[in-house]
Amino acid sequence: MDIFELRAEASKLGYKLIPIKKMPKKLPCVCGCNRRTKWWTAEGLFYECNNCHRESPVGKTEFDAVNKWNEMIEWTKIIEAEDGT
Ligand SMILES: [Zn+2]
Predict the structure, then answer these.
(1) Quick check: helix, strand or coil at residue 26?
(2) Do β-strands 36-40 and 45-49 pair in parallel, antiparallel, or remain unpaired?
(3) Rounded distance from Cα 28 to ligand 1 centre (Å)
């Protein structure tokens, strides 16, 4: 039985299959370091680069924090690329 048949069977029974959100891969830091420390706060958690101590914004869940880390890296890369020209 493949996923389509499984979905059809599930809907017959009145269930809806929801795909599990896959944890995104954490991007390496802009400094090139690929090791981070995870910190927990009252509001949630964030990541700190082990090399340059760059910190991501706080996310409510690990999934959220990973996305915020990746977003921060992407934006930092864009901003630094613009500064270079
Ligand atoms: Zn770093």
Answers:
(1) coil
(2) antiparallel
(3) 8
* pLDDT by 10s per residue, the chain, length 85: 888 888 888 888 888 877 777 888 999 999 999 999 999 999 999 999 999 999 999 999 999 999 999 999 999 999 988 876 6
**Residues 28/70, Cβ–Cβ less than 8 Å:** no
CA 67 to centroid of ligand 1, rounded, Å: 16
Nearest CA to 64 out of 46, 83, 85, 39 is that of: 46
pTM of the model: 0.73
The total of other beta-carbon atoms located within 10 Å of residue 65's CB is 22
